[in-house]
Amino acid sequence: MSLILRLINPVVVAPTVATIGLAFFSYGFPQAGSCVGISIPLILLILIFTLYLRKISIFGHKIFLVYAVPISVGIVWAYAFFLTTGGAYNYKGCSSNIPSSNILADTCRKHALTMKRCRTDVSVAWKTAAWVRIPYPFQWGAPTFNFRTSIIMAIVSIVASVDSIGSYHATSLLINLRPPTPGVVSRGIGLEGLSGILAGLWGTGTGSSTLTENIHTLDATKMASRKALSFGAVFLILFSFVGKVGALIASIPLALAAAVLCFTWALIVALGLSTMQYTQSACSRNILIVGFTLFISLSIPAYFQQFPSSSTLILPSYLVPYAAASDGPIHTGSKGLNYALNSLLSLNMVVALLVAFILDNTVPGSKQERGTYIWSSSRNSDVDPSSVVPYLLPKKVGSLFRWAKWVGS
Predict the structure, then answer these.
(1) How large is the angle between the packed helices 254-274 and 36-47, nearest 10 degrees?
(2) How far is CA 70 from the centre of its chain?
(3) Could you give the CA distance from residue 148 to residue 311 in angstroms, rounded to a whole number?
(4) H or E element: which one contains 259?
């Protein structure tokens, strides 16, 4: 990653990260709007806590700013529970556990979506989940390899790495540290890859990457201690062995979860665009590049996604980009190439990265205009060795990776 680091600037990072949040606009409120009785109150509560009550302190702590999301979710979740148990979403002769495709009565079919999105007892996980469950490698079977999908995931991983680079730099400025050196950045990306491999072995279904929203968390809590994060990680690992914890979270209504994402994805957009503060944001060069990238990264995938999929399944909106690969507009002599190109060009963040990367590195501009990241080499004589110490791995952990060049500073 340090080899291409000099080509990745805030002008590239800003639209790429912002597009990650914008890509899911068709999923956010369309899902939350299916049950406005609980989604609208949740959105309003989060906005009130984070914007209007953010400066209120209780015992010296800004509770409403730091815990805006969990407090809001807890209040509205309890409200949804009382609505469910009180019969607000009960309809005569209708059951929420019957798939809507199997409902014959028109009256029940009309209320099926409301029951699925609003009730807190739709999930049967609480009854079926074990109290103690030990996850183990290859628990879902041996891994499989597909060359076409591997190419797509490799490109998407690069997009995630660019997102992480922007997060590293923004965090260093937030906690008053010097920007990470190329070695530190490469180590961070390498460890994310190692974590992704471990996630794949345990079959989590998701990879491991930097969460951009945590920049907001650091800013709100003013807490960047490794010990605090490690302490929290231990609790998360322990909770993963208790099946009922996941079952409890699964009882959150879908509309409630979508309402939370309306806030978190909007936060990603804002944090992505905030990296433009390190550039001459009023420069016409940057305005045109970022504006064009944002528009075209939404428009091109929309064109690819309009082609009907060969699949007979009814897919949710967030899976539509992946369905474009099966029957997109690009037709070459190679089915594998068709699959890869149709898939990649239907993903908003991939288009954003390609367009911003090409334009920023081909359109003339000074370092001040581009906001070139100060990824100083650790070998430079003007770099104080003590300034790199906060980025080093703990001694016991670092000793295990001495053989790898990318763990250096």
Answers:
(1) 30
(2) 18
(3) 18
(4) helix 254-274
Model confidence pLDDT, tens digit, residues 99-154 = 655 555 777 777 887 888 888 888 888 888 899 988 889 988 888 888 878 888 88
Alpha helices in 23-137 (DSSP H): 25-32, 36-47, 63-66, 68-85, 106-118, 125-128
- Give the bridge partners for 61, in sequence order: 58
What confidence score (pLDDT) does residue 379 get? 47
Q: Tokens 């944090």 correspond to what residue?
A: 271
Single-letter code of the amino acid located at 284: S
- Residue by residue, DSSP assigns 184-224 as HHHHHHHHHHHHHHHHHHTT-SS-----THHHHHHHHH---
Instruction: Return the amino acid letter for 366.
Output: S
Nearest-angstrom CA–CA distance, 244 and 131: 5
For residue 132, report the phi and psi dihedrals to the nearest 5 degrees: -125, 130
> How many Å from the N-terminal Cα to the C-terminal Cα in the chain?
14
Give residues with Cβ within 8 angstroms of 338, minimum separation 6: 328, 330, 331, 332
Residue type, 403: W
54 and 62 Cβ atoms separated by less than 8 Å: yes
